[in-house]
Amino acid sequence: MTGPRLALALAATLLATPILATQILLTPILLTQCLAQDYPVRPVRVIVPFGAGGPADVTARLIGNVLQENFGQPFVVENRTGAGGVIGTLEAAKSPPDGYTLLMMSNTQTANESLVPQRKYELMRDLLPIAPVNYSDLVIVVHPSVPAKTLAEFIALAKSQPGKLNYASSGQGTPYHMAGELFKTMAGIDVVHVPYRNSGEARSGVIGGQVEMMIDAVPAMAPNIGESQVRALATTGKTRSGVLPNVPTASEAGVPGYEATIWLGLMAPAGTPKPIIDKLNAAVNAAIKRPDIVKLWTEQGAVAMSMTSEEFDKYLRGDIVRWAEVVKKFGDKAQ
């Protein structure tokens, strides 16, 4: 029987047996649902495109441990650093869409959509949102040798020495870099960005006095502030940090309306079955509500973020637009 005749015969058979036709059409859907129901049956890789010891790495390991307890399979963190998060994000985007490779990401990725035009992926095309995890306010600190005791004094000092002072970040496009550029724009100052390979090295740079200033996550920098290794000038949230209640917000201290945070979330390669995305979303949302995790994050100054995958999608798209506007203002492009 020729190809066309065979096709006609098959069609006739299906029309004559609607139950069989329905089963054939539903087979992919049923298969996906079955796979999601059993998921995961082997270890899951969680790519962290940032250095070990930073907020993304620490949070990925914490959430990974909880998911391992929940699912009975290891969630193995792999640090794939480089190019301001681009290398690890690209690896995740190119991975099989089967739920066994996840990406721990931050607002670095949303900033890179406009900051790194030459990247070989598009965030919202090549990856799917799973869930946000948490956010933390940042804190503006200086080395103790800097004469400024307040944010207003630092701004005045920077204006008196344009291009002479430096600030550290963990790399191009990271929340610390973008917060720094937003601060420069809103305060009307010229301080030079010094990108390090990771947040730990950047932190060491300001503690050691190689750079004068840094904007870092409150949970990471609070111990150094407590030991007087750096001086806190302002935090970056809408309200004062519970961890640093005596430190004013930047808006209070001289830059009205300034606000910046670092948030973290999970994504998966585009094409990952929706039932698996939903299963992971439910597990993450349950994890971040655990009393022990809430207590830990409260002590550190981190706040859980609970959303559906659809809500997280909308959030990501809005953040991309926000940072595109910042990049347009300072006109910088990552190399």
Task: Write structural notes for this entry.
It is a single chain. Strands 1, 2, 3, 4, 5, 6, 7, 8, 9 and 10 form a 10-stranded mixed β-sheet that branches. The chain has 14 helices and 10 strands. Helix 5 crosses helix 14 (309-330) and helix 8 (175-187) crosses helix 14 (309-330). By secondary structure, the chain is α/β, with parallel strands linked by helices. It starts with a helix and ends in a 5-residue tail after the last helix. The protein has helices at 3-16, 18-38, 55-71, 86-93, 107-115, 123-126, 151-160, 175-187, 199-207, 218-226, 250-253, 274-287, 291-300, 309-330, and strands spanning 44-48, 75-79, 101-106, 127-142, 166-169, 192-195, 213-217, 231-235, 261-269, 302-304. The chain has 2 domains: 42-135 and 263-330, Bordetella uptake gene, domain 1 (D-Maltodextrin-Binding Protein, domain 2), CATH 3.40.190.150; 137-253, D-Maltodextrin-Binding Protein, domain 2 (3-Layer(aba) Sandwich). Helices cover 49% and strands 19% of the residues. Helix 3 links the parallel strand 1 (44-48) and strand 2 (75-79). It is globular and about 85 Å long. The mean pLDDT is 90. The longest helix is centred in the last third of the chain and has 22 residues, at 309-330.
